[in-house]
Amino acid sequence: MTVMNVRRLIPTAAVAGAVALGLTALSACSSSDAAEGGSDGRLNVVASFYPMQFLAEEIGGSHVSVTTLTKPGTEPHDLELSPRQTGSLSEADYILFLKGVQPAVDDAVAQAGVEDTVDAAELTTLEKHGSEVGHDHGHEEGEDHGHEDEEAGLDPHIWLDPVKYAEVAEGVGKSLEKADPDHAADYRKNTDALVTELNALNTAYETGLKSTATKTFITTHSAFGYLAERYGLTQEGIAGIDPEAEPSPARIDEIHSVAEKSGATTVFFETLASDKTAKTLAKDLGLRTGVLDPLEGITDKSAGADYTEVMKSNLTALQKALGAK
Which are the contacts of 14, defined by CB distance < 8 A and separation ≥ 6? Predict the structure, then answer.
């Protein structure tokens, strides 16, 4: 993610635990224009960014035509919509978004007035992963400043927790059944298949991270709060919300101390942001660097072609960094 106040509505310890199953084929749905389908009889679905696109494609299958508002490689939190995109939203049959991640999308969706509009944040329970004691594990006070839309600091990164993502999948399936009753049986079948995949991913994480030399990982992007909580890990964010921000000298000292006490071995960065901070800090502390992908978009730099593959790569990276036995 890049620099910018509003950009990252991620409370400091943001989330994680992601998941998913084999994406058969990404329908040519990466167009950033809102929706053009519908003439072929398929439900015209607009998804806000990749985690929502994945759900719509997997559950909708052949009965939907999915377009996404966020082009591959675009930092989702920074997204600005063109007048054309905003205007064409009202032509969608169904909109799937996640409130609190992309302010521009939240505003446009509210204006579109599409009856079948689904906010994934309402399909599961959001939690705080900010500077509160017990969740933040040592983040500096005030790191969550600048987030007007945080609504009590609730963390929107639910897609990184396979269990929460499965809850969202169930809700999306039911909403598609309601929006397109003629194909309800297929939506139900596809939802069940996806939930089964997510449950298998959860089991893989539980098993793979059960016995490790350390439970602490260091990351430039504090997006893995849900994942850490789900699997008994501790996330240490370098500079809080912005992965490209320079950490304060005091925070670097804290990270150094944490790394020594916890036996942390790796500083993680992500694919959509610069690795400069991670590499500098890792060099100073004598640690390795690695990639932990918050799965906000799939590009040719991603360690996998779809959600499931990247989540499995994340698990492998965590197992290596934590010293899984």
Answer: 129, 155, 157, 221, 222, 223, 224, 225, 226, 294
